[in-house]
């Protein structure tokens, strides 16, 4: 099959990059010479191999003479109207880059949805925005519009401020878990920065040990501490014991009525403030 | 032609995707010489118009006045492939970041990273406590205790303002090396110190106080990886270690209220205990050919926590309490793994099968502890519940290319979850979905996905018997309860011109907890968005977006521990929109841009009970921000930057608004209010660029 492929391909250009650069110039093209891809002393880089045609494919017909009226054939890959599919373009990149975190690309969500490498990466510039913590979220938000809206809400992780990149939690080249998380599970990913909540505690709060997303939304919420909903209703989704946990807190408990510590301030957490667990021998009800 | 060049028939060789070319005559004479160094250095001064803790959250721009602007992004390299990179951001602010990297391309690299993140917890909090910043919070010597906050005669004169803030500082060192194009080694070490003051509630039975609690935490993490690759397979062994130490392991505070029992004038609350987690992971990929591509991961971990217990009470009147252990000897063994196989029997069909397993095996000893309730009285003994769970599942999905621009997909998954010490020992979830992606025309892509998920009890739901008083037997905890979830997702991408894109998307999910009478009964979430991106000229780009998100939930409760007698409805609406324009070379050497975004959120909480319930005000957050920039190229190397930003934030939050330290009789709060600010930020900077 390999021989057939070679026979079907156009020829390479006569002089490689020199052929290309006679027509293609400017910062958006020549920026590649300020990137690792153009370090010819590294034998694995494109410019130590077939130069421009390492990625764009054999360009003999694109650079060749045209018959009168003939339209110039596009380069095979990474070009407007190029004939390579995104899957094939990804294979070109993976030819060199399919190790480390890219080893689970095949079958990943982005791969299935037809996302190509150059949808996120800018190769002909030394400043690839998606590789920069301060600019990365802007690239991801082009498609992830709901997350972009959430990043403007009252409680968020510091993505908008450039202090946190999406890739600190997600591995966009694919993992084998849900949501392409960098660690094996959701909680392991959260504990990367919030290790104090990892426990194990003497008195654990079962949903906290199991799934942070039981109570929190990661990308933004209008409720404090990235909570899904407000306490006390959030807590009353799971707690109904006789006495104060089961009582409806209504507008009568506002400051102008009979203000209640079970509603105002931190609601339930005014007393039960160890919601992620307590290691105090007297902390069974998560208040010590 | 390209179909013949099937992906799977190609070697994933480091030497590239295409066949080898005869490059003997390829001299690259026209190639610009790789510069020895390039980069830019920016220095300037900015000014913040008003002080605001909320505006300064994560930015460090919390105080009015001037600040220094310093940024650097520099690279050097030589012909042998050695390179150095240095990047500095926000040098003059508490949100500074530094990144240094040195290496030889294709052989090794070593790096250093520093990051500082300021986080502001609340605006203008007040407390009567002395010792803020320490682990012992005392009341002034003349403090007069009372049974209610209003009765605390020394409260007002004792109140002092403080700003609860947390700061993270992370130092990182990393190194990586490659050998023979086969072996990769890397090690990454990070140390994060988190210090500051948080707000935390603390109680004595039915009275509570919000305390300024000292935070002094250190987390050290290390990733070490070793990997080997061949043409058709890849294997990586990795170690991950994370150690958390808490230098402020507890807080002691004076009870501002009348003591409810002798000796109950002081309490002690634990903070998070130190812990450590170690994990070994083996992951890899095996691609024998086009037909089959597989990858997998297996991770074995152990979590330990064995910090000494605090005494059950610091109340000397209670007497000595013997506990079964001096520390928890907590141990959780984790095992999680996934396997994926991608099968492509022919180019139009791909089938993905996945298996996954996640086990949290809590080996912590179970013992009978004697608690002291609120540092006041000895309570009945209780056994701890070391929760374990085991999740196992499988997924199957198929993508069929049914024509040149259409893909039809379907999937089915099944998961079982087993839990210990909870109301149901086992639940089962089945999920099935279908999706169509089609290019209706060359300029119009449509995607439609719909699915259903069903969660059911495998073992009956039984209220826990050792919980006294017990939960209402009609309760179904929401993360356990039987649930039907229906989901729809749709999107349309329209590209009427090469330079114009319009996208519309919609997501809808409805959760029906059909078997729940007390607890969450229904939840719905709808979000839809519109995006327009236009680039009519090479030097002009314009975008606009609008997103609406609605999150609704219904739940029921019972005041009198019987059948439902109240319902609560929470409805959140968030509308977000933004526009932006960037024009390069507006005048000779002048680039300008503008970004505007607005987010308006409104939350309604409506309670219905037998008595007509007084309504709650709406929760509101309203953020508007404008950013303008102009960059003028004075010469090839020097440019002048002018930035202006205006941000306006308004919020109404009835949970804290008008709640002063003595508003609630049995809650001594910090009186902080929901944030609101209008802040302008301007800066002037000079950038020196070289290459």
Give a written overview of the molecule.
The complex is a heterodimer of chains A (288) and B (691). Chain A has 13 helices and no strands. Chain A is mostly helical. Chain A is elongated, with a radius of gyration of 28 Å. The N and C termini of chain A lie far apart (70 Å). Helix content of chain B is 1%, strand content 61%. Chain B has 1 helix and 36 strands. Chain B has one helix spanning 155-158; strands spanning 37-48, 65-77, 82-89, 97-104, 108-120, 125-127, 136-137, 160-162, 165-179, 183-204, 207-229, 233-246, 250-254, 266-270, 275-286, 292-305, 330-346, 349-362, 368-369, 372-373, 377-378, 382-383, 389-401, 406-419, 426-441, 444-457, 483-497, 500-512, 519-537, 540-557, 566-587, 590-609, 619-633, 638-652, 667-668, 677-690. The longest helix of chain B is centred in the N-terminal third of the chain and has 4 residues, at 155-158. At the A-B interface, helix 1, helix 2, helix 6, helix 10 and helix 12 of A face strand 2, strand 10, strand 11, strand 12 and strand 14 of B.
Tally of helical runs of chain A: 13
Q: Could you say which structural class the secondary elements and strand pairing of chain A correspond to?
A: mainly alpha
Give a count of the beta strands of chain B, DSSP E runs of length 2 or more.
36
Largest interface: A-B, 147 and 203 residues
Largest sheet of chain A: none
Please tally the helical runs of chain B, counting DSSP H or I stretches of 4 or more residues. 1
The rounded distance between the terminal residues' Cα atoms of chain B is: 42 Å
Binned, the helix content of chain B reads under 10%
Helix- and strand-based class of chain B? Answer: mainly beta
Average pLDDT rating of chain B: 93
Radius of gyration of chain A: 28 Å
β-sheet strand percentage of chain B: over 45%
Which radius of gyration of chain B do the C-alpha atoms yield?
A: 31 Å
Q: How much helical structure, as a percent, in the residues of chain A?
A: 10-25%
Whole-Å distance between the termini of chain A?
70 Å
Overall outline of chain B:
globular
Low-confidence stretches of chain B: 1-14
